[in-house]
Design a protein that fits this description.
This protein has one domain: Nitrilase/N-carbamoyl-D-aminoacid amidohydrolase (4-Layer Sandwich). Helix content is 28%, strand content 26%. The protein has 7 helices and 15 strands. The strands form 3 sheets. Strands 1, 2, 3, 4, 5, 6 and 15 form a 7-stranded mixed β-sheet that branches. The chain has a 6-stranded mixed β-sheet with strand order 9-10-11-12-13-14, with helices on one face. Strands 7-8 form a two-stranded antiparallel sheet. Helix 1 (14-30) packs parallel to helix 3. The mean pLDDT is 96. Belongs to the carbon-nitrogen hydrolase superfamily. NIT1/NIT2 family.
Length: 272
């Protein structure tokens, strides 16, 4: 099946972001994509100073538009992420819609991006955001998909749980920056893919040098052999790739690590 990643240029005008995102979703659908994914914070600039201003309920304006365009195009739409307000708290949340427009999954970013690399970048999502507390998976006629957002990708245990639960594709809307992007963006994706013998896709906003937070870009798809099979540059674009589940099955048969794990010695478990 065909997967499309929309590396969207995100502006400060929410209505423009929504309009352009929906237009690119339609374009991807017209080119045969069955699953379409948007980037992290696709409807607002990324930054702790923006989250409260742009936050919405779910359902709300942005997710309503996503529901409508998913139904119009009869696709599975992974809605990147938006700042979500619920019960007086803010979350970084990905909503997924099915071909009938129904909400299939809602993933709140589990691991908040609180880092300090001296002289390069300091960022603290927890100043404004609360963490999610659950794994998020959804079924399609093609395969089961696991969701994470950006920093979630650094935590191998989360991907391993998804693999154990039968996911064959992991999708991470993310916005690595100009420090962590060149160093770890591709490396982490290839690691998660090889460790769990599944496909990993990441969807970044396009790079905007004038933004307060400059995203690395380079939305990517990695296959279960650890090969990069599709990759964007820094600019706004749509990346297409065909996900071959037969290849996944062959790799798991050739190197059967999933059945060779020593569960008598170690294990990773999902607590809730």
């Amino acid at each position: 099946f065909r997967l499309a990643l929309i590396q969207l240029h995100v502006s400060a005008v929410k209505s423009d972001n929504l309009q352009r995102a929906c237009g690119l979703v339609r374009e991807a659908s017209s080119k045969g994509a069955k699953l379409v994914a948007l980037p992290e914070c696709f409807n607002s600039p990324y930054g702790t100073q923006y989250f409260k201003e742009y936050a919405e309920k779910i359902p709300g304006e942005s997710t309503q538009k996503l529901s409508e365009v998913a139904k119009e195009c009869s696709i599975y739409l992974i809605g990147g992420s938006i700042p979500e307000e619920d019960g007086g708290k803010l979350y970084n949340t990905c909503a997924v819609f099915g071909p009938d427009g129904a909400l299939l999954a809602k993933h709140r970013k589990v691991h908040l991006f609180d880092i300090n690399v001296p002289g390069k970048i300091q960022f603290k999502e927890s100043e404004t955001l609360s963490p999610g507390n659950s794994f998020s998976m959804f079924d399609t006629p093609y395969c089961k998909v696991g969701l994470g957002i950006c920093y979630d990708m650094r935590f191998a245990e989360m991907a391993q749980i998804y693999g154990q639960k039968g996911c064959q594709l992991l999708i991470y809307p993310g916005a690595f920056n100009m420090t962590t992007g060149p160093a770890h963006w591709e490396l982490l994706q290839r690691g998660r893919a090889v460790d769990n013998q599944l496909y990993v896709a990441t969807v970044s906003p396009a790079r905007d040098e004038k933004a307060s937070y400059v995203a690395w870009g380079h939305s990517t798809v990695v296959n279960p052999w650890g090969e990069v099979i599709a990759k964007a540059g820094a600019e706004e674009t749509v990346v297409y790739t065909d996900i071959d589940l037969k290849k996944l099955a062959e790799i798991r048969q050739q190197i059967p690590i999933l059945s060779q794990k020593r569960c008598d010695l170690y294990g990773v478990e999902m607590k809730k």
